[in-house]
Amino acid sequence: MSELTLKNLSKKPDLICPGARLCSGCDETIIVRLVLKATRGPTIVTNATGCLEVATTSFPYTAWDLPWIHSAFENTAATASGIEAAIKAMKKRKEGPLSNFENIDVLAFAGDGGTYDIGFQALSGAIERGHDFTYILLDNEAYMNTGIQRSGATPFSASTTTSPAGKIFLGKTENKKPLDEIIIAHALPYFATINAAWPLDVIKKTRKGIDINGPTFLHAIVPCSRGWRFPPEKTIEISRLAVQTCIFPLYEVNNYKGKTTYELSSPSLSIAKRPETKKTVEEYLKQQGRFSHLFKPEINKEYLKQIQETVDLKWSILLDKCGI
Amino acid sequence: MSKLKKKSELEPGAIPFKSSKEYETGDWGITYPKIDYNKCTKCTLCHFFCPEGAINVREDGYTEVDYRYCKGCGICSHECPVKCIEMIVKK
Amino acid sequence: MYRDDSEKMNQKLLGLNGDEAAAYAIKQVNPEVVAAYPITPQTIIVERFSEYVANGLVDSEFVAVESEHSALSACVGASATGARAYTATAANGLALMWEILYIASGMRQPIIMSIANRALSGPLNIHNDHSDSMGARDSGWIQIYCENCQEVYDSHITAWRIAENINVQLPIMICFDGFTISHTMENVFTLNDEIVQNFIGKRVFPKITGHLGETDLRLNPTCPITMGAMDLQDYYFEHKVQQHEALLNSLEVIESVENEFSEITGREYGLIQSYMMEDADVALIGMGSVMGTTKYVVDQLRSNGIKVGLIKIRCYRPFPKEKLVKAISNCKVIGIIEKSLSFGSVGSPLYQDIKTVLYDYEKKPLIIGYVHGLGGRDTSPENLKQIFQDLLKIDNLTKKIGNQQYIGLRE
Ligand code: SF4
Ligand code: SF4
Question: How far does CA C250 lie from the centroid of its chain?
Answer without folding.
Answer: 13
